[in-house]
């Protein structure tokens, strides 16, 4: 008598594992490998095109090229700051994206064609005005109307008291250190209270440039360190 039960025999059929197609691999790279918000292949392509223009001695200052150029350098330095140990989690990305380009221009390490085209773009288009309007209006419009009104009514008086006390304390400390009242108020206290870079330092520097008859870049250079640090 046979003791073998064929009903329990196991067949080892080969498992058909589908490998991802070339298209799926491409979109996986585009979705997961990024510098800032730019997919790595597009980032490399933008860098190559910018390098070719720089080697040719002419970088167009139109909005398409300038947006790609500013995004390339800004996200590159931001990614560098984000990957720094310890300080990368303490805001180093924003600091690197802000101060490294300034240092490169100061020490003459950026190609002249990049500096000239960027300067021409900012001065000829007034893109900062559009940026300020978009970021401020966008921030307000994205908030819930009821929460915005109720929150403003609740924090207005405490915020006003805090602003007044902050001005008094700031002026007192500055005077104790021997600083001029004008410098204390306009280039230390107000930048701190302005709030951030896009909604504070940049609009403030534009106003200072108009009222004090100084270059907007110089005004921003004096205001920005206080805001960032």
Automatic annotation (TrEMBL):
Gene Ontology molecular function, alphabetical: organic anion transmembrane transporter activity
Top-level taxon of origin: Bacteria
Organism listed in the record: Enterobacter hormaechei
Cellular component terms (Gene Ontology): membrane
TM region positions: 33-52, 58-78, 90-109, 129-148, 155-178, 184-206
Pfam families in the cross-refs: 2HCT
Protein name as it appears in the record: Malate permease
Keywords associated with the record: Membrane, Transmembrane, Transmembrane helix
């Amino acid at each position: 008598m046979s003791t073998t039960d064929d009903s329990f025999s196991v067949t080892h059929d080969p498992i058909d594992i589908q490998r991802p197609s070339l298209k799926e691999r491409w979109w996986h790279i585009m979705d997961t490998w990024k510098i800032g918000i730019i997919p790595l292949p597009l980032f490399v392509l933008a860098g190559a095109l910018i390098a070719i223009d720089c080697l040719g001695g002419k970088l167009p200052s139109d909005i398409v090229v300038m947006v790609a150029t500013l995004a390339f350098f800004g996200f590159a330095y931001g990614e560098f700051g984000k990957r720094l140990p310890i300080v990368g989690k303490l805001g180093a990305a924003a600091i690197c994206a802000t101060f490294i380009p300034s240092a490169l221009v100061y020490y003459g390490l950026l190609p002249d064609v990049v500096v000239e085209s960027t300067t021409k773009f900012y001065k000829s288009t007034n893109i900062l005005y559009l940026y300020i309007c978009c970021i401020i209006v966008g921030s307000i419009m994205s908030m819930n109307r009821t929460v915005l009104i109720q929150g403003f009514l609740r924090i207005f008086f405490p915020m006003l008291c805090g602003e007044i006390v902050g001005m008094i304390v700031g002026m007192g400390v500055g005077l104790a250190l021997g600083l001029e009242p004008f410098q204390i108020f306009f280039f230390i206290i107000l930048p701190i209270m302005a709030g951030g870079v896009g909604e504070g330092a940049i609009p403030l520097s534009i106003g200072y440039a108009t009222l004090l008859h100084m270059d907007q870049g110089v005004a921003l250079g004096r205001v920005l360190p206080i805001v960032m640090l």
